[in-house]
Sequence to fold (314 residues):
Amino acid sequence: MGSLNPPALPAVDFSEPNLKPGSQGWGSVKFQVRKALEDYGCFEATFNKIPIDLRKAIFKGLEELFDLPLPTKLRNISKKPFHGYVGQYPQVPLFESLGIDDANIPEKIDSVTNLFWPEGNPSFSTTMQSFAEQLSELDQIVRRMIVESLGLDKYLEEHMNSTNYLLRAMKYKGPKTTETEVGLSSHTDKNMVTILYQNQVVGLEVETKNGEWITVKPSEDSFIIMIGDSLNAWLNGRLHSPYHRVMMSGNEARYSVGLFSVPKAGYTIKAPEELIDEEHPLLFKPFDHVEFLSFYYSEEGQRVQSALKAYCGV
Ligand SMILES: O=C(O)CCC(=O)C(=O)O
Ligand SMILES: [Fe+2]
Fold:
């Protein structure tokens, strides 16, 4: 028998103006973050720092970006899989995506903008810069709360310095049929933490530990925060990294944009000894994220159920 209420993600409110480490509000939000990430690996964060004008500019920018001719979009090439232009895949024909590496560095956003619009597009560039800046603040708040709540304060600096930011824009065309179609296949993220923001078209689904799919319906003010495999491994499995997918129906396009904190090349992801004991034996051998990604995109990596377990599971 199904439950009466459709399952929903936990919601955590980050809009308190004085949300500072050590304050009472901080302690209570930290507790909710930890609980949500243990149980679901994901939650909806309310964070009212994105003014309406910025919100509108983001979606206008995403439309302009994906409306560019394909050869222009293909100028965005990255050495790392899934960081440049991705699209025109027969398995996921509705999906297209464009990434900007090191999105916390304004010049990087400028240089990718200039690739697409050689005559410049300052409105696009400044919109994406301020969006990345606001969201990287949220990423750092959440990661600090996680580190503190697991008693790993002595690793805080190392952990915060272990990542870069990838900003990635996604478009999913409406399938324009009565059927629901796969926009993006089920997967776990491979990075540390993902923050997603989307227009009003629903489509993201997150799987619970019981195998139920939650349809995510964020408000205009909310972001979806999700744990990736790298953080799951670093924390020796203490937090869950959920499977999720995008399912599309109807005519309207879904636009989303994600800020992904991604381990730097050369940084070894190795669980702190404080998280390993008899009750919690080591789950994953130390690994490098770039090498893990190469495995994930190999034939074997695509075939196995969990690339993380197959790659470095103990
Ligand atoms: O579009 C979305 O909301 C989800 C995208 C996603 O799962 C991903 O890029 O890894
Ligand atoms: Fe994802």
